[in-house]
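Researcher: I've got a protein sequence and the SMILES for guanosine-5'-triphosphate. Could you write out the 3D structure of the bound complex as structure tokens? I'd like something to compare against our soaking experiments later this week.
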Amino acid sequence: MIEIGSEPERAILVAAPPFDESEEVVDEHLEELIRLADTAGAVVVGQLVQRIKSPNPALFIGRGKAEQLREQLGRDGASLVIFDDDLSPAQGSALEKSLGVRVMDRTELILDIFALRARTAEAKAQVELAQLQYMRTRLKRMWTHLSRIAGGIGARGPGEQQLETDRRLIDRRIARLRRELQGISRSRQTRRKAGRGEFRVAIVGYTNAGKSSILQALSGRELFVEDRLFATLDSTTRLVDLGEGYQALATDTVGFIRKLPHHLVASFRATLEEIEEADFLIHVVDVSSPSWEHQMEAVDEVLRDLSISGPALLAFNKVDQLTYHEESALRSRAAALYGPHVLTTVREEGGLEPLRSALRDRMRADRPMVHITLAAKDGRTLAEAYREGEVLERRENGGSIELTARVPAAVIGRWRRKPGVHVTSADAV
Ligand SMILES: Nc1nc2c(ncn2[C@@H]2O[C@H](COP(=O)(O)OP(=O)(O)OP(=O)(O)O)[C@@H](O)[C@H]2O)c(=O)[nH]1
Ligand SMILES: [Mg+2]
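Model: Sure. Here is the predicted complex with guanosine-5'-triphosphate in place.
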């Protein structure tokens, strides 16, 4: 963990991109790592870049570069090195030995931030699970840390037997956390079933894209918004009024990032169920970032990893930051290259209207509004209307009942074939 005392820890960042990576991309990645370090509470006092063909099995970077790094650490008074890539346990400990300071890799840094930011019991359990899984393979190195902190000449790491015991303890804790998370996920599913008639939207996207800001603006209720990475770790669901009598349940989710550690994704599965079970996804993209296209790809990649391929709408957000020309360039580029999309901003009056309107269209197509007339004794269809749809109005008329409801198209198809049930469209076009 990065210490957050009065003095922030001074860190040097190390990136080792391949030779064919463009200068621009290398800079983008360093920029992002600086933001991650800053979010974790460290100040970046230096950077080191070495282009490599493939990572050195011993130190990841070359031996000469490592020597240069050691000198730079002394010069800059830094006590922490952060690698943009993931290090093997052996590389991590070899680096620490030769540099004499703590070395973190990208995964560790992200885990650190998540631990700092977790608020709810569920988020905390998810982060701890990911941390333990990460730690398990690196026990030896962690122990070296501890024995060094303990000081004492001749203080050596634990024997294999001690490591075995520790591993068993960790495994037991991992099993417990998994059970706990399953319990939370089950109770959430029950809650979700209770409100099944509603149209559910999940808001996904790269970290800091503006997901929480959009949900806040749509729902008119405060959410935690911050110009830092991973402000949101817990999913929040809000009822959103889309206008013209349309309502949906929208869920804000944890942000994604390039090279998101896989076991972190796996531990956040419970939260990500919200995405899996949504009727529709809004993928928010921060077009004010020079690397928005790469960020978009990174999000698509995580979604693919999670086998999520639901219908999605791209929301190109923060267009208030673009000049008139940039905005029209974006419009033509998006029209040529991307599927359904809208341009949005939470900073300007009406900046989310295109999004609201696209969502209404989607709901209209997915859950048309209909008038249903059925016999009062047809309890089955009536129950179905309440269970599968959203009943907006109900009138009893002698032996028959008239409903106005939003109902999934498949259910309407079934009703149309049912004797005694009469369905007509009620959507104003
Ligand atoms: N200029 C501008 N800034 C925006 C807009 N939307 C969001 N922001 C800012 O972008 C930053 C991040 O916004 P959040 O809503 O916290 O982003 P998020 O996607 O929820 O981020 P994480 O939860 O960290 O993944 C905040 O400083 C917002 O004020 C927008 O349309 N225009
Ligand atoms: Mg957020």
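Model: Residues 205, 207-213, 225-227, 229-232, 255, 317-318, 320-321, 345-347 surround guanosine-5'-triphosphate (ligand 1) (CB under 6 Å). The chain has four domains: 9-117, 131-189, 197-365, 367-425.
Researcher: Great, I'll pass this along to the crystallography team.
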